[in-house]
Write a structure and sequence with these properties.
about 210 residues, single chain, 6-stranded antiparallel beta sheet, 4-stranded antiparallel beta sheet, alpha+beta, 14 strands
Amino acid sequence: MPIPLPVIPNTYRCALEWVQGVTGQTAVNVIHITTNAAGVPSADVFEVLDDLVTADMWASVVNSAQILTVNITPLDGVSATSTFPVGLVARWAGETAGDFLPSSAAVVKFQTLHRGRDNRGRVFLPFTGEAAVTDGFITGGTTLTMSTAWTAFATALQGDATTPCTLVVASYDRRHAGAGAHVTAVNSIVAEAALGTQRRRQSRLR
């Protein structure tokens, strides 16, 4: 039986659904957003994301891959997931030309002001372009571009004029059925140089 999502006030689970246009392979990245106000509709959260994401956030991703939909789930215990198509727009697509590495990912690390596994997070960006990699590492220029873009995105979320919100790390505390679920604001973001391994993506080819 699936474990239900926890209840965390004013917090939204945002699943970014990738599709690679040549092979049709898919991947999902999940981030969490906490709004300053209560009761914000999922559509308003999506509008903020759609306004503020930039292609530089996924600079390592091959340009034949794109986020096509965003599924947003309010963690209020009752609201359904809403699906929002993003359209074929460049800010939701990768930037690296050429072929991609199916089993590798660029790791973007979210750090907070608190210690412990529950207070740090990461996303594994899929479909890493071969041209963005040298000897198993993302090139320095690409990691700098992504770190700068993700940091700017997080800052812009907080300053949004209509729906100010915060990029957070969410701890679901599944070991205790969500009793200790909480969020921690992201304080700094770093795109790591070393590639992450995604065995499940490689297995689709074997």
